[in-house]
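Narrative progress, year one. The postdoctoral researcher (J.K.) led the effort to move from monomer predictions toward full complexes, under supervision of the PI. The following entry was the first complex the group processed end to end, covering 452 residues in total.
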Amino acid sequence: MATPNISLTVDAIVFGYEPKEGLSVLLVKRKYPPFKGRWAIPGGFVKEKESLEQAVERELEEETGVKVNYLEQLYSFGNPKRDPRSRIVTIAYYGLVRSANFELFAATDAEDAQWFHLSELPKLAFDHQKILDYALERLRSKVGYQPIGFKLLDKKFTMEEIHHLYEVIYGRKLDRRNFRKKFLKLEILEELEEKSGGGRGRPGSYYRFDEKKYLALEKKGMTFEV
Amino acid sequence: MATPNISLTVDAIVFGYEPKEGLSVLLVKRKYPPFKGRWAIPGGFVKEKESLEQAVERELEEETGVKVNYLEQLYSFGNPKRDPRSRIVTIAYYGLVRSANFELFAATDAEDAQWFHLSELPKLAFDHQKILDYALERLRSKVGYQPIGFKLLDKKFTMEEIHHLYEVIYGRKLDRRNFRKKFLKLEILEELEEKSGGGRGRPGSYYRFDEKKYLALEKKGMTFEV
DNA sequence: AAATATTCTCGTATTTTGTACGCAAATTAA
DNA sequence: TTAATTTGCGTACAAAATACGAGAATATTT
């Protein structure tokens, strides 16, 4: 009755973001065959007593030292031939972290886990490129109707930062002034006293995503749309 | 290394539609414990050499005799406690069929598999109510931006029928004239010569969904939106 | 057969939303 | 001090969504 010959893994596409760098993806180098030496997305077998999300977080911690700020189930991939060894079905997740380059190197050695800029991806093991494509598509559509973009930024951020983030994710220019208007009209940002010094030109306010306000408005039927 | 103690199943929420009845869901009565005698959504263990979609279609055929017209992966449910016997992770799908009441009774006896109107659902086994809620939410959002509503109707249908379908799925009134305008402007419907006789009032044209036209327009960046 | 009711189809007016873009204010760099 | 840069506000125009009037085609009632 049971299915002892099918194994279950979880894998995670983790997106990181740095204002100057843009979007990057966290990959690990495989130590054993098949695809020994190839880059792959982190993941591994689910243990019997842990939830799927716990499994993802554990594997990420073990293999890369990264703790994600947001985690969402993506899709399950179960093609019988996707792993040359045996039947392995994987439940793929994607995660978001801020300050990409920071947290990583502490917990692991840079040989095994690295951030790759989206435009400089190596060839990936298994069907991982397909999973990555799927994740990117999901991210692109989801930032438009759910406030998850903030998970890629620091708690406080300027209009310029979030504007640039959306331009990077969508891969096209967005009018700065209209973007601002639209975003502020949602009434889910809290403007802080502090201004962004340092850069050139007039400093802009810092903002913070007000999750409580968002949840209250969401309940009333408001829809986040960018 | 492997995970022999986790089993993998697939389950499917199948939505049927009849103009007079509205939306219904296909359920099967459980023959064995746990939850013996309770209604549940059809599904079962995945075999080693079949794809996930094949598994869904096989189980549906075996348990209910229904062949779906559309099938889409929904979400994977893996809470360690979701099955009281052992760790069973399920990959849930949802499917759509037209002429709900028709195909069912031929292949199975009505005792075991039945359509339930959405407003008259029995208490379900396991976490199946949660899966059903999830499926309904997905259906509601997806009919708005993908042309899957047609899969619930006959090949030819009137404006009144598809209009009513959307009202049922959304659970609210939609202005008939604006709905018509919007739908026709998409240019994915082929108007047929035939008119709908029989009913009261002026007969309306039959239409057919033109999939080729839709795919061509989609490639050009057109977006279906209702 | 005529009058009435029902439903489809076309059309128009109004409101809302999206887009393009000008320009003063605040700051840094020269 | 002047020039360059960036923020923040506002306005004009275009496009899309919504409300709804009314004639055409058919069935039903009288």
